[in-house]
Amino acid sequence: MTGDERLPHERGLSTWTTRRWLRVGVAVALTVLGLLGATGAWVLGRTASISDDLVDVKSPALTSSIRLESALLNQETGIRGYGLTGTPDFLAPYRQGLADEKTYTARLKELLRGDAPALRDLKNVEDHIRMWQVRNARPIAASPAGAPSPQATERAAEGKKDFDRLRSAMTAQQNRLRDERTRSRDDLAFTMRLRNWVFATIAVLIVALAGIVFEALRRGITLPLGQLGADARTIADGDFGHPITPTGPADLRRLGGEIESMRRRLVRELDFSEQARLRLDAQSADLKRSNAELEQFAYVASHDLQEPLRKVSSFTQLLQRRYGGQLDDRADQYIDFAVDGANRMQTLINDLLDFSRVGRVHRQLQDVDLNAVMKRALSALSVSVEESGAVVTRDELPTLVADPTQMSMLWQNLIGNAVKFRRPGETPAIHVSAEQDGDLWRFSVTDNGIGIDPEYAEQVFVIFQRLHTKDTYQGSGIGLAMCKKIVEFHGGTIFVDPGYRDGTRITFTLASEPPAVSLAPAEPAETGSGTAPTN
Predict the structure, then answer these.
(1) Quick one: pLDDT at residue 530?
(2) CA dist 204 to 12, 208, 215, 528, Å?
(3) Bridge-based pairing state of the strands 494-496 and 440-447
(4) Minimal CB count within 10 Å: which of 264, 425, 458, 530?
(5) pTM of the complete model
């Protein structure tokens, strides 16, 4: 066979999968073991058959033939003694020999059933027995006792010849039975040797098959999988440039090729991710710097606006008190507008200043009993609570690691909003609940107020976003934005429960311990301070 002729066959074997190799190997092994098992079963059956025939037929038949000959000898001895002496005692062996003859003849017929040559020998022996008994034994046995039988003397020579012919027939039968027994023994010995060789061959083949299977599994599965695992571990340890060489059956090579393709994609994605990370780090640094600058600007702007605003507010209030009623009504109205605007600006700047300080200034993390914080918050809101007649109830609150000032600001804003946005003509009912949810605590502030439309559930947490005019409800639009900033600083989330329709339910979570955060820039020293005019 040339190389071109072998190439398609090799390509055909190279496409075999592990399952196909295993199926073919198992089929071949089972076929070989089946043939060996059938051969072994045949040898065992043959050995058992020959052994049974030897033990149950051949040996008992020869033994019965010898005993039959002994019974005939007893008959001949008894008849000869009785014929010569006429003594009745000599008839006892003769009669016993007759009984034994019947027994052993029947036994031989049973043992030799189906063996035509042996049955012919037995028939020949029976014919000679009948001839000797009819011509010699029976006439002599019928003679009267007490005197020698004349027939014994007259027919002594003829009787001897008949019995010799009988013994010759017996000898021929026994020789045949001995020859058959010898052949059976030889067959048994040969079959046993063949059995031993067959089972030795089976053992050798089983060991060889086990070795072949082990080596095939080692070369076809274990080594390729080990190589694939070693390559995968090398890549997992960080050497992403290490190539994977597919080996073994087709499916393992295909698996190795897929892993290699995945490695290449991973290398490309890692390169892209590294570039993206570098860009993201640069953008993150820019964003941190920008946020720090914005926070600094917001703080400085709100802080530095305090002084000129206090002057505007103070001098406007002085103008109102000193010249109120001395000017016309329109002038008084303008002064009121200026005073109101200055006060609102003062409130807005204070709220903005508080908002900018969350996470920067107030960050004294410690064990905080929220029950005590709630009491302080209610005490701070006592005026508005008493004026509205609000009923505030709460569950038992936990102790968490948090900033006490921020927790107080959180409760004041949430409960203050619940009191502020009450239904006209209805007593506010506010309930604060708390339950543990894994590593977090889930809190809810539920009221029976005017509620929040679901479409504004996200907007209310944006700074300066108001759903009502300042004439309807006072405020700067910073309260819920500050609540969100406080909750997120403590590792939680806050949202409006859209399923609650009988008012508003604000739900938020707090971690038992807030996540680690980077230190914020220190609050700058106050600048541009001055003395505002007083009343």
Answers:
(1) 37
(2) 31, 6, 16, 104
(3) unpaired
(4) 425
(5) 0.41
